[in-house]
Amino acid sequence: IPHTEHISAKLEGWTAILEFLMEYTLTSWLASFFIYILGGFFTLYISIFIAIIVVGFLTPLVLKELQQRHYQDIEMIGYGSIIESIFVIMKSSSVMVMLFFLLIPLYFIPIINIIAINFPLYYFFHKMITFDIASTICTREESKKIKYFNANMLRAKTLFLYITSLIPFTVFFTTIFFVIYLGNTYFVEIKKLRTES
Length: 197
Description:
Radius of gyration: 23 Å
Low-confidence stretches: 1-11
Order of helices and strands: HHHHHHH
Mean pLDDT: 82
Helix content: over 70%
Distance between the termini: 82 Å
Structural class: mainly alpha
Oligomer: single chain
Strand content: under 5%
């Protein structure tokens, strides 16, 4: 009997809070607004993470098809291993979480908070998709050269892809096109590097 009384007391506490929130129009509207916003936010970003995982598995197949159709003169060498991939994922995830915590003060400033919330997620998106494509197509040295000489172009392209992925449900249909778009960029840059050398 005391145990059930304890549970009912806890439930009464929560129902009192909910009753208070729903009693007034303003608090009711604010509570509903925040619930929908947070739900939409998590749904959107979970879909982006699912897309990154799907792209990770499909990238070699898509790039192989792209190479056979348009870049037969370029050999896909590739580098890295499963251990290196896990290390890159863990490192990028750690930096992303750290950025989330470092940018907390900016979350309360209107308009800047949109950038502050999306910056860590964009960082993770950029690192994962560029590593995935580079490690499939080129050597480690070629990847470093492309990142060094074309850093701003790669950032601009991945930023465009990230903003596109923020449109609800678009990410489910466009992930393959993301790989094709960036894959073309890497193939063109590799062709330049190999013809120069």
